[in-house]
Structure formats: C-alpha cells, structure tokens
Amino acid sequence: MKRPDSVAVGTIVWLGSEVMFFAGLFAIYFTLRSTSPGLWEEQTSNLNVPFALINTIILVLSSVTCQFGVWAAERLQPHTVKGQGWKSVGMIPWFWMTFALGAIFVSGQVWEYAQLITEGVTLSSDPYGSAFYLTTGFHALHVTGGLIAFLLTLGRAFAVKRFTHKEATTAVVVSYYWHFVDVVWIALFAVIYFIK
Which CATH class is domain 6-194? Predict the structure, then answer.
C-alpha cells in the first residue's frame, strides 16, 4: 500500500487551519450585517460589483490554468513539446499564465481600494471599512503568497537538470494552495458583493 505524500498531507492540514482563520473573518461580516444593517446597506452601495465580478472571473480562470499546469507536471512535462492541443503545453507556460492572472487580480484589488478610499471607505472610517479591508486584504496577502510560491516552483523547474516526481509534487502542493485561495475568494465575493 502506497503512503500518501507527507508534504501534500501537511499542506492539506495547514489549509484546514487557514479555513478556521477565514471563518473568523466571515464571522466579522455576518456579525456586522446583523448588528448594523443601516451601515451595511449604506457602505455596500459603494462597491463596484461589475468590476469585482470581472476580477473574480480572472482569479477563477487562474485556477483553470493552474490545473492544466498540474496535469503537465504530473506528465513530467515542464516545457512545451511538439504536438497538438493543450497536452503539448508544459507546466512552465501554464504556471506563468496563472501567475499573470493572479497578479492582475491583486492589481485589480489595489485599484478597487483606491476607488473606495475616494468614496470615503477606509480601514478606519467605520466598522464596515475595517471588515472590508481586513477580509479582502488578508485574502490579497494569501494570493501574493501564492504568486511567490509560483515563482519558486518555476525557478525550481528551471534549476533542476531533470524534472522528476519531486518537482511535480511541488507543483501539485502549490495548486492545492492556489485552488484554496480561489474558493475562499468565491465565498468572500458572494458575502461581500451579493448579500445586500
């Protein structure tokens, strides 16, 4: 019987603790909504839902490109090979696409923060502003951490002489984290932008 990879198991356990962290942030939102419905209604009117939806789609697409990169890594194919279709594309190009989409998402969040600040929604303006920036800011930090992980994974793929199961496992573990931050964002997006 084959034992599960200890790095993958450790990552899953760590992501379980991250679920608890984000659950606390969600609790802030639900408490605020129930205790200050007027403030909630007033401040959510400042949110740019169409822009946030486009930014969310970009992040979800990054999960798709990430998964294609994982499949390439599992085939031990870091580089693009001759052939037709998506199976000819290696892990490295897929992960670069994922990195670019993730960077666009974070840039979009920074742009949204700038817009909200001009509307008077700041970290210290009121409880809603604090809740908004804490939840989305911590998520943006997690996405940034994922971007750094992609750079390290890509660097490792270039540094090794032969791409092996060890490098493929690294790609898979990074994908667990990336899919996690995507799922958390989808839940945050629903809570922040759609619950009025």
Answer: mainly alpha
